[in-house]
Write a structure and sequence with these properties.
1 helix; about 5% helix
């Protein structure tokens, strides 16, 4: 009996110390709690052959010492620890938030790619030259084009005992974030003269800025505003999010303040409807105040969706109805019970003609009427009325067609009508 209770206690403690949520079979986000100065395993939901990881330390308060996340690969998995520069374990054990992906190029459900590259140069306060960085602007380091690329990353190896932290720029100006045509990544040691004789592996993600709505998760990827300052200022510095989120990773991009540093999540609950951030600095050399000018931070946030989805089909289309009340509508029919959240009705005219259905549960045999009008979701009997919140009709007599897309967390979307 005692052995059984001990085993249960170990299982409970393990589950409390880490939360891993798979977004796809090759991508997940993890929160590892109580990470201190000793190596700790990162539990993974997926299996990886060539994983890429990016992590962020959660600084509880300015009363705590500065810390950067160090990573080392162990087999097909990882270990993480918090390190106070340049190589100290006097840190506050806190949560570390990570994003892990199989190396590769992906277009759906999230447009991004994840790679690794060796870095043998290190920038610091007196040397921010691009020659110390790695240019990953073109193949084989970058394989897709992006309208608004968001670059995040991590020093993924532990080939040097002394710390270094990931950063990125547009390869010309250290103060300018990457563009689609120019992405350089590197590592920095703040104001400390680098003593990192061995190359380190940089893991990096290049993603299209967007909020992605999938069957099992919302994922928002963005390059935030130039408004995140130092931990010694008035943290946290918040980025407003469109909904509550649970998981996050954040990476400093471009360098306005020559003291160098890295991004941290800040406070006891850094991820919710706002992302609480700060820029951290080492206190080994030069200015040791941890004050810092405003910077931009690139981030991924994710919120799980746990739904059983209904199977919907297009049943009828009322074409080009006019009037203030009754306008064009599309009637959908439920073949099974479940949620209709994030089903997409598209007229194939581009983003402006994609309509996401709301968080609504239906039963087999129910009807869902999508009205081309402004209104409030309501239900009468087995008929659910939802609205596009626009008087622009999906079908505009220009040879349009409409499709109904079921939410997916894979590279395949089910065409339901």
């Amino acid at each position: 009996m005692a052995t059984r209770l001990l085993l249960l206690l170990v299982v409970l403690l393990t589950s409390q110390q880490a939360r891993a949520y798979p977004i796809t079979s090759y991508l997940e986000m993890v929160t590892v709690t109580a990470v201190g100065g000793a190596w700790k395993n990162v539990p993974l939901s997926n299996a990886y052959s060539d994983p890429v990881i990016a992590c962020t330390y959660n600084l509880p308060s300015i009363a705590d010492n500065e810390a950067v996340v160090r990573v080392q690969q162990v087999g097909s998995g990882f270990q993480v620890k918090a390190q106070r520069p340049v190589n100290s374990t006097t840190v506050t054990a806190s949560s570390v938030y990570c994003t892990i992906s199989e190396s590769g190029v992906y277009t759906y459900p999230i447009k991004y790619e994840a790679h690794t590259v060796e870095s043998d140069g290190t920038n610091y306060g007196s040397d921010w030259t691009v020659a110390k960085m790695e240019n990953v602007s073109a193949a084989p380091y970058k394989m897709q084009s992006y309208s608004q690329p968001v670059v995040t990353g991590q020093v993924m190896s532990y080939n040097n005992a002394n710390f270094s932290a990931f950063w990125s720029s547009n390869c010309t100006s250290r103060t300018t974030p990457p563009s689609d045509a120019a992405i350089c990544i590197g590592k920095n040691t703040g104001q400390v003269t680098p003593n990192n004789p061995n190359p380190e592996t940089l893991g990096y993600f290049i993603a299209e800025e967007a909020e992605y709505s999938m069957a099992n998760a919302y994922v928002k990827i963005e390059l935030g505003a130039d408004s995140v300052a130092g931990t010694k200022g008035s943290p946290p510095y918040n980025y407003t999010l469109p909904r509550n989120y649970t998981y996050a990773t954040a990476t400093w991009t471009a360098v306005d303040g020559v003291n160098g540093g890295w991004a941290v999540l800040y406070g006891n609950s850094p991820v919710s409807s706002v992302l609480q951030l700060a820029i951290e600095e080492e206190t080994v050399a030069g200015d040791k105040t941890r004050t810092h000018t405003n910077e931009q931070v690139a981030y991924w946030v994710m919120e799980p969706i746990k739904k059983t989805y209904a199977d919907l089909i297009i049943n009828e289309v009322m074409y080009m109805q006019s009037g203030a009340v009754l306008r064009e509508f599309i009637e959908l029919y439920a073949l099974t019970d479940g949620s209709i959240l994030n089903y997409v009705v598209s007229s194939q005219d581009g983003v402006s003609q994609n309509y996401y259905l709301p968080d609504l549960d239906v039963q087999k045999g129910d009807y869902v009427i999508l009205h081309s009008n402004v209104g409030t979701t309501n239900t009468v009997g087995n008929v659910h009325h939802v609205y596009t919140q626009s008087t622009t009709t999906p079908l505009a007599n220009t040879g349009d067609d409409i499709v109904l897309l079921k939410p997916s967390s894979t590279d395949v979307t089910v065409l339901n009508g």
